[in-house]
Amino acid sequence: MSAWVLFLTVFLACAVEAVEALTVVLAAGTARHWGSALQGMFAALALLAVTVAALGPAVGSIPLVPLRLVVGALLLVFGLQWLRKAILRGSGHKALHDEDRAYRRELAAAQAAGTGGRGRVHDWYAFTVAFKGTFLEGLEVAFIVVTFGANQHDLPVAALGAAAAVAVVAALGVAVRAPLARVPENTVKFVVGTMLTSFGLFWATEGTDAHWPGGDAALLAVVPATALLALACTGLLRRTEGRTL
Known about the structure:
By secondary structure, the protein is mostly helical.
């Protein structure tokens, strides 16, 4: 996998998580206290940076073959979850993810909560909500960075892709001060789910000490094949819309 492919894959996957974290932070800041929400967000980012710094070298020290088997299996589970949801949403069997509706729900919950601070935190509720939202979504970002970076022996490029995704989403969030409802998140999730599933299948197979014809070039066939299969499943399920799955 080239550095650009690694960067783009990590960027897209992390951008989805960053949009979801941004929604929580914006709701906490808008309804409660911006300073406390930002404190919670930065505290979570600092903890995530430590997590990635600690896990990266540890994962990178594992021999390549068993590492690819474990990482491939994890990516398959992770990617298939995203792909399954994207297929169900695309076929009409599951409601489309609405970031604007999620923002309004978080906003209402924040407005209804009690007040109070602790120490240098003016609003503990805003801090806690922003910290939890950022950290939980960030854990998935950390997983993507560590697994892709360690597997390709290029953790800096993977980390750069994640940082770029977070920076772009954060900049857009600051500019519009609203959830990025216009971002085609479900389409992005379909693409990312396809990529994660394809890489998971590719690496898990190599982890069994098998070899793909053409080496890394086999991904040029695996990725489109996975996408076509997912699209076929979406079309098939769309015909049965309204029936019980």
